[in-house]
Amino acid sequence: MSMKVVVVGGGIAGLTVAGLLARTGAHEVMVLERAPAHGAAGYGIGLYPLGAAAFNALGRREELLARSVPIDAYDVHGPDGALLQSVDLGALLARFGPMLGVTRTDLIEILAGTVPDGVIRFGVRATGIERAGDGVVVTDADGGRHPGDVAVAADGMHSAVRGALFGEVEPHDTGFHAWMWWAPPGSTPQGTASEYWGPSAFVGLYPMPQGVNVAVGLPADSSPDPQGDAASIVEHLRAHVAARIPGAADLPGLWDVRSGRPFLWPMIDVRAPAITALDDRVALCGDSGMGFLPTAGVGASNALRSAAALAYDLSLADARTASLAIARWRERVGDLVRHNQDDSRRLAKVMMVRRRSASAAVNAVMKHMPVSAMTRDIVKSMEVPF
After folding, report:
1. How far apart are CA 2 and CA 288, in angstroms?
2. Residue 74 and residue 197: Cα distance in Å, rounded?
3. CB 65 within 8 A of CB 106
4. What is the C-alpha to C-alpha distance for residues 196 and 248, in angstroms, rounded to an integer?
5. pLDDT class for 351, splitting at 50, 70, 90?
6. What is the reported pLDDT for 249?
7. How many secondary structure helices (H) and strands (E) does the chain include?
8. Per-residue pLDDT reduced to its tens digit, 243-293
9. Is residue 194 within 8 Å of 85, Cβ to Cβ?
10. Which CATH class is domain 4-69+97-171+269-347?
11. Are strands 99-103 and 44-47 parallel, antiparallel or unpaired?
12. What is the C-alpha to C-alpha distance for residues 28 and 254, in angstroms, rounded to an integer?
């Protein structure tokens, strides 16, 4: 007895589930995506082997490698630009595979290419979900009803499905903003992700195929007006960095905003009360279940690996055993993803401090404590069954 799977959200997690289930050919899959089409989507992603492994199963490993760059080192600098710590990512991840720098747009394009024509229904904004007989029905803003044996909520950090199931979930708010843009190559060595930490500020530089993804962070109450013009936003950020991280203020190309306008990313994450619901007929996968801060760069990797695990469990099931498959998935991934989210929160606490005294203490600690000690669960999750 085959089953029908309704996937809400055509992003990284949703397309991974749909693409992997399509390869089995055993189930009917429908993806509801609120956007009218896939297009430019966000900035850069540091893709751990944890997530990149899903492209092996999708048969798209070579395409991923062709559209990404290896990130072999991770350097942390203090406010004056002095190197506090350099992590050899090649050695740290040697057993698992390389860390890759890839744009979210490229990831989405690769994943969308694994989904058969007609599976994705664009322009459908899901608004609710309910039990119906032995299955579920997803409702949309136009009054449409989309029945399935199970549903996958993969509609992101501000998930409408999560809201319909649990009401408003209070986010974990760091009190910081991050501003993103594309800069030309040169502000960080090739293959090296560089970060500069200071009081009430940080600067991140992440190599990507077409340039450098810049992230500048500062307290939300010191952030520029998001309605201001691009030049005033950049000037505000530049002055803030110059006062707090002078060692980064004059990096070559840092303020050459190629994307036209910096993008504001409030530094919040979210954790749903549960990652399954409606008697295990709904799985909340990716950011809809546990959204990630960008601080450890592991959100997309967890979304990919969780989605791959979900697709595997669903591939073993039929309509009668679908809820059992989702329950097994919950037990498989729940603790590991939660621990990875904890790692990203832990790193945020040392990256984003307000007082100069706290910043000085962090700098002193960073000279002796490896970053890997703060991301131990991320490495562990690549060693254990998922």
Report:
1. 26
2. 13
3. no
4. 7
5. confident
6. 95
7. 13, 19
8. 999 999 999 999 999 877 899 999 999 999 999 999 999 999 999 999 999
9. no
10. alpha beta
11. antiparallel
12. 47
